Task: inverse folding
């Protein structure tokens, strides 16, 4: 892998719509050029007006540099509706060996990935669902960095985009998640901001299965609930993305 | 469908109407869903807005209202709403509001119509009118019982054996023996012009000819039974069974116009349904003591459970149980007369309430009365009739028919009176009606003479049929009483949902379902001068007067059948579990099928009560 050109800081400091514009001019790979050219909504756009896409990866571990993507699930949605007819799921062949630990968690086996394509073969399909949409994830330190590294590896250039992180929203809503020593003594439990636990607080159902698609759907539902409870349809998207 | 959507699909297929849907269709459906989260209090649908979706509640709860603002339904997990608008003019018919934070699966109109075209079950389930769902649910059930789907002609296995009414006793007996039949039809006229005039059976030969030692040259016309009860060739076997039970006859000529197609004997039906209630009835007449009757009364409940398990309909079961109860009463009266001697003056023993309506179940008390001949002199005759009434009442109690708590029994002197007094009772109830008094005398408007001089009871039926339809105040007060008991709105989770949105843990299927229905059917029947007692028969006579449109009558019939059958099944399940049956039902004891169709049936009752209120303009405070 050759040296990946770095994005200059003055571009990184631009507001997202202008930054997409600048990045579109710099991008060499056609999928990335098309992604940036599809544009980014202005930060004061009401969240109810914004096309969103919930995104979830299963990976071989937590380190983007040392681990690989195993599967991708996504579903385009808006505050009003999560459209299952556009839901997509891919298993991809990881560059790095599959760890036994993660196999037991997400259930994707060696047999599954033997026939799976490399990420490079499905990039057009993945980006068809991402273009023009703001990605929504639960825990922002997976999907964005893993996709960035994977693209650097394959296209020799990375990717930048804003995300809405439903876990960060929960963290913001529950700043004092860890009860004090005294409260722990009287039996108070810490508040969990994991996906399943957060959903329970909004009366959202439990999903038995774990795969990238159902987790993406679960994340989309969680964002709808968070906005209905703590924000409003008129909340500017710029207040939510990170 | 993406296979990873299996979680969503699996939730759908646990609920009607998706549980029976072909896999391919459910997959297409799943892939078309739009998920939407709404907070408690959010208006989901407004009246008049364009209908674009059917909704499935994945979690949470939604309330559906009528245009008037009344609560129509409360929808929980796994239930659907919004389908009416899609089927109607594509405008929302019932507004909907989230009661709790709710996750909705929206099914787009295109998918909805595709499913409607391609899955009959789905189409039945979401059909515009709830009542057609009820109808199809019932017809599916009826198809499973052979007695209800096979015509009586199927039981006719041999050529009709008949003889002219001019033959002599010995000749008749010889024809029967030669042909190996237990009944001989007797005809007036010959060939094309032959008309059925009477019947003679084995039993007649034994009881009349042999015991009375009649000469063999006696003309058969002197001992044959006339005024025959016959059944049409197009009837179903269960109708033949009901006719035999009600009239206590063992042979039924099957006729097609004037042509006699054959004879159906009790034995033919018993063969069809071994262990039948008819068998039990014939056994009752063989008992010589109260002790014997008590012993076979234990079979009544087995017979009931068996009929339920064989998918008999409520009319069949109600008539069979009433037929059995009537037979116990008749046999007890025969035994009483043997013990006390023949009655000093003619009398009629009368059944009241559910037995008279042919709608009896296993949990029942005795409601009866005696009509005595007008020559009645208390000092001379009453000792006998009191003793007879007591003999019957105690005997019935022995056989499981508990004493009437309201003391409506022939043992009560008030209800052991000559015909003229009875005429006065009914005249007073109808001509000077008082709501409170009518509440207590309601039961007398279902009456049936079951023993003795039954013409007395027929006279009372005639009096009621003539008078009741002409007394508007009587009908109005009866209607007011009939509106005291209302059905619940439906079910929500494990609760019974009331119209005011309140919840109950249990409800009484008789008080809240069958009783309000039979009450309102009685009033319409009285208003059109019907002499029928059974609710289904009453609906038939109402139909002839066009008082109620045919569609609504069909709905009433289906609602009565469905609520009755749920009540019957509930009691049968208790019996099988070794528990004492009752009428109280908890929603969690009901199957999803029963829940959804009971709700439809309650809707029919509620609409019928509204019509009754409108027709008699009765404004009453309603209480449950």
Result:
């Amino acid at each position: 892998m050759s040296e990946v050109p770095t994005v200059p800081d003055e571009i990184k400091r631009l507001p997202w719509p202008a930054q997409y514009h600048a990045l579109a001019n710099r991008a060499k790979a056609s999928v990335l050029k098309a992604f940036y050219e599809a544009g980014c909504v202005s930060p004061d756009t009401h969240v109810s007006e914004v096309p969103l896409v919930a995104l979830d990866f299963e990976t071989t571990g937590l380190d983007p540099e040392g681990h690989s993507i195993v599967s991708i699930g996504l579903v385009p949605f808006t505050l009003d509706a999560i459209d299952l007819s556009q839901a997509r799921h891919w298993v991809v062949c990881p560059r790095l060996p599959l760890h036994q630990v993660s196999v037991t968690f997400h259930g994707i086996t060696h047999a599954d990935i033997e026939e799976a394509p490399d990420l490079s073969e499905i990039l057009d399909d993945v980006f068809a669902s991402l273009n023009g949409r703001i990605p929504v994830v639960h825990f922002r330190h997976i999907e964005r960095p893993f996709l960035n590294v994977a693209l650097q590896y394959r296209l020799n250039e990375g990717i930048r985009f804003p995300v809405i992180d439903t876990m960060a929203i929960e963290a913001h809503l529950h700043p004092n998640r860890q009860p004090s020593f005294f409260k722990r003594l009287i039996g108070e439990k810490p508040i969990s901001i994991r996906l399943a636990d957060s959903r329970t607080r909004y009366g959202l159902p439990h999903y038995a299965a774990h795969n990238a698609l159902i987790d993406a759907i679960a994340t989309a539902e969680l964002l709808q609930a968070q906005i209905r409870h703590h924000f409003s349809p008129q909340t500017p998207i710029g207040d939510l993305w990170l | 469908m993406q296979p990873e959507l299996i979680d969503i699909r699996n939730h759908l297929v646990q609920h009607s109407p998706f549980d029976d849907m072909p896999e391919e269709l459910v997959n297409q459906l799943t892939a078309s869903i739009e998920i939407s989260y709404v907070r408690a209090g959010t208006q989901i649908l407004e009246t008049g807005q364009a209908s674009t979706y059917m909704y499935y509640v994945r979690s949470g709860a939604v309330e559906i209202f009528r245009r008037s603002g009344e609560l129509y339904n409360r929808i929980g997990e796994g239930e659907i709403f919004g389908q009416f608008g899609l089927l109607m003019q594509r405008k929302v018919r019932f507004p909907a509001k989230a009661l709790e934070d709710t996750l909705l699966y929206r099914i787009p109109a295109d998918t909805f119509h595709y499913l409607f075209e391609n899955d009959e079950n789905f189409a039945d389930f979401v059909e515009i009118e709830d009542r057609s769902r009820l109808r199809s649910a019932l017809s599916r059930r009826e198809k499973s019982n052979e007695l209800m789907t096979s015509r009586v002609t199927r039981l006719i296995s041999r050529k009709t054996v008949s003889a002219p009414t001019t033959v002599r006793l010995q000749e008749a007996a010889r024809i029967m023996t030669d042909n190996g039949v237990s009944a001989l039809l007797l005809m007036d006229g010959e060939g094309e012009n032959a008309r059925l005039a009477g019947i003679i059976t084995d039993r007649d030969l034994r009881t009349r000819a042999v015991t009375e030692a009649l000469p063999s040259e006696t003309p058969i016309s002197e001992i044959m039974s006339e005024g025959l009860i016959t059944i049409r060739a197009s009837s179903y076997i269960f109708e033949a069974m009901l006719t035999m039970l009600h009239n206590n006859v063992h042979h039924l000529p099957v006729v097609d116009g004037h042509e006699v197609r054959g004879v159906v004997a009790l034995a033919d039906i018993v063969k069809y349904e071994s262990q039948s209630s008819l068998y039990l009835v014939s056994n009752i007449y063989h008992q010589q003591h109260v002790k014997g009757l008590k012993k076979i009364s234990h079979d009544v409940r087995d017979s009931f459970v068996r009929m339920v398990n064989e998918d008999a309909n409520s009319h069949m079961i109600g008539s069979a149980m009433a037929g059995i109860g009537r037979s116990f009463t008749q046999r007890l009266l025969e035994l009483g007369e043997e013990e006390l001697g023949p009655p000093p003056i003619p009398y009629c023993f009368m059944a009241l309430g559910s037995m008279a309506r042919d709608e009896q179940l296993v949990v029942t008390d005795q409601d009866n009365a005696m009509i005595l001949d007008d020559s009645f002199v208390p000092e001379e005759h009453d000792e006998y009739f009191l003793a007879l009434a007591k003999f019957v009442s105690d005997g019935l109690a022995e056989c499981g028919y508990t004493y009437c708590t309201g003391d409506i029994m022939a043992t009560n002197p008030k209800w052991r009176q000559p015909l003229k007094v009875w005429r006065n009772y009914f005249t007073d109830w109808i001509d000077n009606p008082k709501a409170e008094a009518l509440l207590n005398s309601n039961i007398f408007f279902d009456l049936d003479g079951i023993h003795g001089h039954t013409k007395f009871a027929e006279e009372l039926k005639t009096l009621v049929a003539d008078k009741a339809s002409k007394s508007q105040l009587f009908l109005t007060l009866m209607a007011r009483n009939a509106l005291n008991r209302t059905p619940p709105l439906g079910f929500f989770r494990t609760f019974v949902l009331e119209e005011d949105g309140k919840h109950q843990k249990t409800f009484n299927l008789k008080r809240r379902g069958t009783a309000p229905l039979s009450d309102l059917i009685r009033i319409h029947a009285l208003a059109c001068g019907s002499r029928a007692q059974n609710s289904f028969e009453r609906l038939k006579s109402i139909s002839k007067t066009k008082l109620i449109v045919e569609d609504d009558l069909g709905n009433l019939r289906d609602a009565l059948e469905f609520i009755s059958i749920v009540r019957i099944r509930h009691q049968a399940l208790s019996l099988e579990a070794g528990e004492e049956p009752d009428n109280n039902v908890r929603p969690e004891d009901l199957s999803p099928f029963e829940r959804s169709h009971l709700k439809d049936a309650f809707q029919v009752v509620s609409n019928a009560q509204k019509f009754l209120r409108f027709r008699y303009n009765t404004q009453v405070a309603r209480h449950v």
